[in-house]
Structures
1.
Amino acid sequence: MTEVLRLEHVSKSFGNKEVLKDINFHVNSGEIIGYIGSNGAGKSTTIKIILGLIDDYEGDVYVFGDKVKGKTEYKRKIGYVPEVSDMYDNLTAKEYIDFIGMLYGINSNAAVAKAAEMMGVFGIQGAMEGRIHTFSKGMRQKLSIVAGMLHNPDILFLDEPLGGIDANSVLVFKEIIQKLKNKGKTIFYSSHILEVVEKLSDRILLINDGTIIIDGSVEEVMKKQSDTSLESIFNDVTGFHDHEMLADKFVDAFMN
Ligand SMILES: Nc1ncnc2c1ncn2[C@@H]1O[C@H](COP(=O)(O)OP(=O)(O)OP(=O)(O)O)[C@@H](O)[C@H]1O
């Protein structure tokens, strides 16, 4: 097993708001990491720092042992499927894939042929000539997945990747993740759908208010917390027990 990613004492503030507070973890090849936390906990900020989209942070990020601050070459080893993709809506899928291929130095015909095969797996091969602004939410997300994986990255960051994707393609996607793991790829999976995270992940990283409060295998974490599901662990460690009261409050307001 090779160490592919390490964060050492990473902290980040926006103005006087401390969003990440001394984050430390490392990840090995072939691991599927479920990165979870409440809204605003700091998940996307962590991922953006690793991707080099935010570079004014404290501490260090290492990818394959090299410090990445200020560097770009390492980005070829990383794939990113964002939660909301900034696609160029007026392009066709083919033009978009061509553009992504160009960014990674993949020849146009090879990029389009590879994408067509991957899109076919998700049942959207017919969309290649369509303009992205005409796509459904799920079609956009499938194209985003294909685009993020086109360059055969070693580490894949998936931020809520299943949004809008139909149940059959979700099944295929979960299999793909397992098979990529078996090929030694590392998957960093961030999602609020905890049933999926629980099933997919080898290891859970739970960030709360900018601090990693859980780091361990799903079994270890459940044993330690004496809980039976990731959802109840999440509720417990984030100190949330008010769902019934809050639902009553909402319904009361609704009925008034
Ligand atoms: N560019 C920015 N400027 C100011 N504050 C920011 C910026 N980006 C993020 N934040 C703040 O940092 C905190 C963490 O945000 P982040 O997007 O990392 O959370 P998250 O865990 O990904 O949340 P979610 O689950 O809702 O996607 C939030 O309070 C957010 O308002």
2.
Amino acid sequence: MSTALLSALAGATIQDLYRELLLRIGEDPSRDGLLKTPERMEEALKFLTSGYEQDALEILHEAYFESEYGGMVVVRDIEFYSMCEHHMLPFFGRAHIAYVPNKKVIGLSKFPRLLNMYARRLQVQERLTEQVAHAIMQTTHAQGVAVVIEASHLCMMMRGVEKQNSTTSTSTMLGIFLSETQTRSELLSILAPRGRR
Ligand SMILES: Nc1nc2c(ncn2[C@@H]2O[C@H](COP(=O)(O)OP(=O)(O)OP(=O)(O)O)[C@@H](O)[C@H]2O)c(=O)[nH]1
Ligand SMILES: [Zn+2]
């Protein structure tokens, strides 16, 4: 890209860029239905990438409660929407987050908040899974953390290979979930589809 073009782009707003994009795909950005579209797109993009402005400590740091609970906590079926970094198309599905506390439990709502934070960045499913697991482990010093994500990728559905029914599963196991087969088996039996337990 030429220096002149780069400096011209640097002065452009996100809405200018979206207007140009509409022109390049053969649309007329001045027609009635599209007049406010660059503004709407900017707003949507800011929301969908708002995770860059947050960090895990900020989300988790005031929601620890002392507890002697020594079992496993599993928050399952947390729905999420993210965008793949390759095509900037959505991938979405469900996450299951489990941990074994270490004298402190975390407010349950913080798990979906943490997932949303990482999901609202350009992602690959593998990294999303790892980031959620490591953030919980590092901030809470839990005995173990496990994150399982099942997702459908629109870049594999509405374009490319056009497969409508495939889903992708990823999992990250840390601490006791890695070292103890029994703990891992307990989690897998909790996550097994109902009727197959
Ligand atoms: N591992 C991983 N791959 C992803 C994820 N989301 C999208 N992809 C893949 O990223 C790859 C990008 O491959 P490229 O060959 O560079 O792009 P492409 O030509 O658009 O690929 P096709 O989708 O096969 O048409 C594709 O195989 C996508 O399926 C993800 O979360 N994890
Ligand atoms: Zn993609």
